[in-house]
């Protein structure tokens, strides 16, 4: 067990943080939504109803959407875009290990590498493919939740409901998206640039403390 925790500590830590913060979101989102309902002259709902409400679905997936968009674009852009001196970039002045073609004779190579053919071609881009699929699924879920929440609010006011075709161009939906996207792109910009000049000893996201500023890569 000790070896398992050592070898998987980073993943376990962030999974626990995810579960804990999701629980916190549910608790406080539930209270906030019921407060809004009471303010609108309606009645409070049960937790089970909140978990399928537009308020919860929209607030959850608009954040997931921006995270997966940021990660997928970062993976793609680091294939051909460089930032001299950043620990998050490939070195523009030398060949990188990640650019070499996979060898089926390499010890413990993943089975798609040994299989070859179209399976290998897909596997060579599998990280990007899955991240974009996760972004697409989250985008659709965000749209569904946002539309549902909008119509729930309109129903409380006795106003006509919005259709999917009308809501896809609604300013609220795109405001929700862009306010999250811009924060993700800012965070990537900050870590890419700060890692040129600043260090954190022991972190795989930092260059060695004594590395020159213009040394690129970890």
TrEMBL record:
Residues 87-109 have a biased composition (Basic and acidic residues). Pfam families: DUF6766 (PF20554). It comes from the Bacteria. The chain crosses the membrane at residues 12-30, 122-144. Keywords: Membrane, Transmembrane, Transmembrane helix. InterPro entries: DUF6766 (IPR046657). Residues 86-109 are annotated as: Disordered. This is Uncharacterized protein.
